[in-house]
Amino acid sequence: MTTQLLPHVEGRLTQDAPLAPLVWFKSGGSADTLFEPKDVADLQSFLRDLDPTAPVMALGLGSNLIIRDGGVRGVVVRLGKAFAKVACTDAITLECGAGASGILVSSTARDKGISGLEFLRSIPGTVGGFVRMNGGAYGGEVKDILRDCDVVMRDGTLATLSVEDLHYCYRHSALPDGAIVVAARFQGHPGAPEAIQAEMDRISASREASQPLRSKTGGSTFKNPDGHKAWQLVDAAGCRGLQIGGAQVSEKHTNFLINTGDATSADIEALGEEVRARVLAHSGVELAWEIQRVGEPK
User: Fold this and answer.
1) Exactly one of 27, 101, 107, 220 is catalytic; which is it?
2) Is 290 a known active-site residue?
3) Are strands 86-90 and 93-97 parallel, antiparallel or unpaired?
4) Could you say which of 78, 132, 171, 278 is catalytic?
5) What angle in degrees, to the nearest 10, is found between the helix axes of 193-210 and 102-111?
6) What are the two backbone dihedrals, phi and then psi, of residue 278, each rounded to the nearest 5 degrees?
7) What pLDDT, in 10s, does the model give residues 80-95?
8) Do residues 213 and 248 touch, judged by C-beta distance below 8 A?
9) Left, alpha or beta for 280 (phi > 0: left; psi -120 to 50: alpha)?
10) Is-catalytic flag, 220?
11) Which has the closest alpha carbon to 247: 231, 230, 269?
12) Is 30 a catalytic residue?
């Protein structure tokens, strides 16, 4: 897809854009086109005028993602600073741009005395990703706090979807293919900023103690099956420290895969599949990927 065939934009278009620097694993190939829109209107007009057969994918902080080594066909949309604003609309509601991080949202909620959003402090990602996958941790999920969200559909139309419209279940929503979340309204309840900060500190300390936060990783690799903890199943199957190429099962938390330095995305994905096979053989439980895997193999 050449620049000449792409719609005019106010934002930034990059051809053959390396994606490895933009994802936490620091591996993977390039996007045919990377689009960083100036604002919602720019995104709408681009998608409206783009060839309807061109694949479109949104990219947030790249924390829960494996970009395969052959790269991503079509257009990858990355929402920048223009989409990272957070504002209070009433005593218990925050209007959040899809590019805002969990840390920014939870910190703003604390400053405004809004409780119930503390768990977002622990999720490495942006609002758009949280909404798409019903992000959750430490007893909270997006479905518990989301009122509604604004979404640009693949044809460029702007729609507002309620939490009911998304038909949330564990780490999944019914958001249409090609749709890109651009904003969301989160609702909490009144709380004391000091108590909110204390809960955020507790969550932060727990993550620091139990997760390999200093490593190149993608966050939780597998969904927790009903009645089980994924990390316990992985550990019981003897996978702690298991390595393929430069990819390793974290010694610190066995539901995390890490890039020890020179792992390819193929290494990381192959390790995940080997873990799934060993867990199935050991416990009879089939683990499902929580990390999204996109693109083409090399």
Assistant:
1) 220
2) yes
3) antiparallel
4) 171
5) 150
6) -70, -40
7) 999 999 999 999 999 9
8) no
9) alpha
10) yes
11) 269
12) no
